[in-house]
Design goal:
42% of the residues lie in helices and 14% in strands. It is α/β, with parallel strands linked by helices. The structure holds phosphoric acid mono(formamide)ester and norvaline.
Amino acid sequence: MEKKDLLSIYDLSAKEIKTLLSKAFELKKKRKPLDVFRGKSLGIMLEKPSTRTMVSFAAAMVQLGGTPIFLNIEKMQRSRGESIHDTAIVLSRYLDALMIRAFKHSDVEEFAKYSTVPVINGLTDREHPCQILADVMTVMEFHKIITPSDLKKIKIVYIGDGNNISNSLLAIASVLGMNLTLIAPKEYLTGKELLNKSLEYISKSKAEIKVTSDINATENADVIYTDVWTSMGFESEEKKRKKLFTPYQVNSELLKKASSKCIVLHCLPAIRGEEITEDVMEKYENSIFAQAENRLHAQKAVLLHFIK
Ligand code: CP
Ligand code: NVA
């Protein structure tokens, strides 16, 4: 059977996303180590720092009976210019899957092209698909949604930078048919290319997607989701971003317009006092830390689905 990669949420059909979510919930409920991956290994290759993605994937692999292998990029010949082509072919002969966090999405695509084992995107400048599976899990848990088809009833608002997180949110909302509002300053709104891509799915899924710079679009939100204003790799724009994003901070004032049962999500790491205030982080820590925990359960479901 041909190997399959998880580079983008669009690599998954609505049916596959539903299967992954249901598996993740099942694994969370059981909390029992399994012995399905004995003798199998997952390569973990990170070009940027990571806490949740690195550790949840490593722990997930261990809990499934397999072994994570941390690849130190600085010690690899890649750092001396060995090509992605050759690296991918060679790693495929040792490993059963490869999780990569990279700056350029196209680099992960190139790895996937030449790798003969599944490549999983652990975050690029374009998408963070594994994070978003855990996020949807968290929305379902906190709003007591039993079947993903009912997610439509929940108004999700993402406010802040139009980045990898909001791109993957847009993708999952479009595929599953969710109600999503993306709010960002004009310059940082989701780009045309990704909006057009989402349109291909919206006609079928009947998702309700709104993209705006108007902060009042948080009205009646059941979920408010934010992320850092300056993602990894964009540090040179930090000063400019701070100024532009200040009105988009998630604070108690902004939450007044939301529904009374609104939860707050943040993929973490957070910068308290910038995109989210300390008091909001504290008040909504249950949902935010459950979201981080759900990475483990979602990652286990992903590994079981992709490693054959
Ligand atoms: N949310 C997330 O991906 O966290 P890390 O950068 O710590 O992996
Ligand atoms: N958008 C953030 C997410 C970190 C998990 C970044 O790319 O830095």
